Amino acid sequence: MRLRVKSVFITGVVVIAVFLAACVVLKMTVLNAFLKAGEEVTLRSTRQALKVFDQNAMEFGERFAGESSSDDAYQFVADGNRAFIDSNLNDKTVQSMKLHLIVFVDLEGKIVFSTGFDPLGRKEILDEALLKKHFSTGSLLMRTLTEQKNLAGILILPRGPMIISSRPILNSRNEGPPRGTLIDGRYLDENQVKRLSLLTDLKLSIYRPDDALPPPDIEWARFSLMNKRSVLVRPMDEETIASYVYLEDIYGEPRLILKVEKPRDVYRRGEASAFSFLISMIFIGLIFMAVTLLLLERIVLSRVYVLNASVNQIRKTGKLSTRVPVKGKDELSNLAESINVMLQSIQSSHEEHLTSKERFEFAVRGSSDGLWDWDLTTNQIYYSPRYKELLGYEEHEFKNALSSFESHLHPEDRPRVFEALKNHLEKKSPYNIEYRLRNKKGEYLWCRARGRAVWDPSTGKALRIAGSLTDITERNKAEMIIRENERRMRTLLENVEFMAVGLNADGRIEYVNPHFLKLTGYSREELLAKYWFSLFIPEAERYETRIAFKEFLIKESPRRTEAPILTKAGHARRVVWNHTLLRDDVGRAIGTLSLGEDITEITRLQQEMIEADKAATVAQLAAGAAHEVKNPLAILLQAVEFLSKNVKDKNPEIENLLKKMEEAIRRADNIVKGLLDLSRPSQLDVKQEDLNSIIDHALSLIKNPIDRKRIHVVKALDPLIPRISLDKDKIIQALINILGNALDAMPEGAVLSVKTGVQSVSNLVVAGGREQSQPVRIVKQIVTVEIADSGPGIPENLLPNIFKPFFTTKRGLGGTGLGLSVVKNIMKIHEGAINVCNRKEGGTLVTLEFPV
Amino acid sequence: MSADKKKILIVDDEEALTELLKLNLEETGRYIVEVENKGSQAFRAAQAFRPDIILLDIVMPDKEGSEVAAQIKSDPMLRDTPIVFFTATVSSDEVGRFNGVIGGQPFLAKPVTIEQIEACVREHAR
Questions:
Q1: Which fold has domain A64-194?
Q2: Chain B residue closest to A676 (CA)?
Q3: Helix, strand, or coil here: A209?
């Protein structure tokens, strides 16, 4: 219930209770007092009324005293003279006196005269018995005569109660002796009672208790008064109070009930004052209530509400820096101040908490760790939302129970984890362990858990343990990837057909790969920690190369260099290097890793290709030119023939001239023919042939010049050489060209040696180019033909040119400069090779190599 | 004696060459030589002249010698007339190797002497 409603209710209840209490008190004390007072007053009035009745009876007796003390009457009793009666007591006279009974009794108790009327004034014959009973000698009424005393009272007659008086009859001087008794009576009728009521200002009424049907209150009064001769007071209603009392007759018998009715003035007044008191009570109560509520509202409630609203506002907004208003100096302002002080401390502790919480959350979020907290006393366990999120669960999906952890732990890791936990709790060894947890998808994550328990200092028993959980799956994966990458890189370096050399910053060898070892002929042990430059760089270039290396360590350029290195055997290999600068964690250069490709062969081949291209271009030009050249040659030839037949008077000079012209035409024709040979497409008429017999055939074709120069031919033909696929005609042409050159170069009587044989050569070949395949060593056979002359040899500076078309040392001596070009072409289309070099002992050695 | 003389039709676009060949060959008194310098006219010339042998240049600007030969070979009247090709594009090596016959056709490599022509006519002419 709201405070306001409560206070209204309470003050209302208090006011009503006070009011009711006042009512009760009023009722019990004041109103009762008034009631008693009212009854007192009524009692007094009743007694007064009784007195009035007695008085009335006495007065009634007094009024007729004259009658009894008159000489006439005195006389009448003695003589019974009726005149007196007729004059004084005729009916009319009696009626005017409103008397209903007159009786004269003499001294002997004899009724001298009697007359009676009913209550309505009608003449009535009196009952003798009744007269005798009351008026005979010895009756009470007659006592007045004997005692010389007047008597008045009420006598109950059959027709109703009657006021009776009896007096001794005396003379006018009121002197005796009395001659009898005079009795007067008047019915106590309603008029009488009314008169008395008016007299007493009370409403009086008379009832006979022996009435057959008395009113209910009279019936009640009769019973209540039965045994006590007192006055009975009873309120009739709100307005009227009634009292009841017995009226005694002349014999002292209670024969009538007098009911005195009186307005309840006293009680009414008391009631009215009580009512007005109550009204004022109500009024005062309401004022009290209003004032109380107002004061309560002003002093307490409104301020409590303001306080409450402020606190609520702070609670809602969460602004702990807000303060509640402080007004005045009382308990409430003290409370407000206390709240403010409390807010201050909450704020600072909250800020502190926030800071530490933020720091904590930041740390937790930053590390993306999950948290867990296991209360070992209650066995309750808490997993932070991040913990569950790590495993892919919503907050409600992963129950805060140990079983959740157990059911997600990899079965293989379970013994290890609980062993570590046990060791930590019992021996306080660090709890820092990696294990696998199953996530929502069913995959196992590698996690690192770190934890620390809190031990009870008195018992040494662990109370709780809390810690963090880190997902290290990615880290493990990353490490695996790094290891895998390293393995791949190493495999690559170990297998690649490039040279790989790692040098430290001093230029000492730290790593070489197998390909490098193979090409240079060293073993790894011979090279590690050796100085690179002194081992591999030719002396002439050592200095520059070392400077370049130092510069590279600083500038990281040039990344690509081309330089010769020396093999163990001392051969120079041309290598293109690709350098990478290696740095340590802080970026310092710690060495280089260089990949090198041996381009010695490539360079040579490139050179050859350039030459071949040149030759091919020339050949094509020649082919085009041949047609255009030959027609003019044909014309010239015909013209020379015509002239040599038709010129008259031929002198020897003209004839000589014409011959020289014809020769010149032939020479030109030969050159064109040679060019055409070069330009021929490489179509071969290939058959399995015996090279030895082809050589014999070629030698036979040049038998004449050999013989002419008396050349000694030494043949060393290996009969075991295999037959090879070749175009016989082309090979004969090639041999003739070579042998022709040899003949031209040799002096007369020199030695020409021709040798054939088989050789095995091996090559490393990477088959298929697949990553995993190892290089394969292929051994193949070649057939060689060596033709050595004993001429002067070829000057070294001319050696590179000998295969170029139109290069000749026999210009003007019939040399076209196409012979060796043609040979090279023929060897090429047979996938063979030709080498020309000078022999140590002099002369030239031409080697032809044919694949088997 | 014209009946004894062999009729030679020389087809070549080189007018100077054909003129000299005609002079040199007719000077021997053993041949009647007709000259045609246009490949496209060669077939008509052959039909008109009905030679005993035709010397036919291979490379000609308006019509290739091989085409002319095919045309002649497809003519019933000329089908059996022997054709000897003149060629400027045969190397010395090829001349020796194929012994004057390539693809079943005899040929003469320019520049050619009268002797060589006479030998060839003797061998191939009807």
A1: Beta-Lactamase (3.30.450)
A2: B91
A3: coil
Tell me: the pLDDT tens digits for A760-805?
Answer: 887 766 554 444 556 667 778 899 999 999 888 888 888 877 887 6
CB pairs < 8 Å spanning A and B = 73
Question: A497-598 and A683-851 share one CATH topology?
Answer: no
Is the domain covering A683-851 a CATH 3.30.70.20 domain?
A: no
Cβ distance of A638 and B114 shorter than 8 Å: yes
Architecture of domain A497-598: 2-Layer Sandwich (3.30)
User: In chain A, what are the domain boundaries?
Assistant: 64-194, 368-471, 497-598, 604-664, 683-851
- Per-residue confidence (pLDDT) for residue A146, from 0 to 100: 65
Do A669 and B111 count as a contact with CB atoms less than 8 A apart? yes
The reported pLDDT for the residue numbered A51 is: 84
> Among all residues of chain A, which has the CA nearest to that of B21?
A638
How many other C-beta atoms are found inside a 10 Å radius of the C-beta of residue A218? 19
Using alpha carbons, list the distances in angstroms from residue A92 to A98, A123, A191, A247. 10, 10, 20, 31
pLDDT of residue A138: 66
Query: Are B88 and A639 within 8 A, CB to CB?
Result: no
Distance in Å, alpha carbon of B25 to nearest chain A alpha carbon: 10
What ipTM goes with this model? 0.82
Spatial contact of A782 and A803, defined as CB atoms under 8 Å apart? no
Q: What is the pLDDT of residue A525?
A: 92
pLDDT digits (tens, 9 = 90+) for A259-274: 888 888 878 888 888 8
Distance, CA of A563 to CA of A568 (rounded, Å): 16
Chain B environment of A636 (Cβ under 8 Å): 111
Contact assignment for A673 to B91 by CB distance below 8 Å: yes
CA pair distance A652, A460, nearest whole angstrom: 141
Tokens encoding A300: 């307490």
CA distance B77 to chain A (A): 31
Q: Are B91 and A680 within 8 A, CB to CB? A: yes
